[in-house]
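Morning run. Coffee first, then this:
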Amino acid sequence: MILYCIRHGESTYNSEGRVQGQSDVPLSDLGRRQGEALAEALADAGLEVIFSSPLRRAYETAELIARRTGVPIRTDPRLKEINAGIFQDRLRSELVAQFPEEYRRWTSGDPDFVIPGGESRRQLAERGVAAFRDIIASGYQRVAVVAHGRLLVVTLKSLLDSLDASKIPAALQNASITTVEVEPSTARMRLITAEDVRHLEGVGLSGSGDL
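And here it is:
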């Protein structure tokens, strides 16, 4: 089984440097072009299905891939981005001034720090792993998973062995593809490529960012 794990294209919040979390914002113009480039890159991948976060920026990315490949989209709310609580909808530049202690604890990397009104990294990883386990058990062989940077990072680092997990960057570029192979009998995952953005040459990258 091959999983193409995709971070959505650039959103309007990404372009503004604003924390989105579970706020439901659309793709930017660049994000739509990135989605079209993703669709071309996956046109001959033999996809059977796309599992997508229902948040608009991910679903719009999935739709662009689905139009090119002709495969169905199945949404799963467990693939949503972390609930960023009090950080959501705010410029990153505002967080240090408005929530200095909370932002310090977030940037410390503490997996159990719960953003007030939101989630912790560990809670996010638990639902991400549960969603991926069900995708692996679905019986499909070639699958695209369109989700979010923080969700994909913590989930893949939880599922891969330590060597492969160390190759997953702390933040993924918009519209990047991280490809893993799954052994069906054991569900063991092996990293093939991390954060591939070759398909974005001539289209453009956006900030990777956290949240």
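The chain is about 35% helix and 15% strand. Good start to the day.
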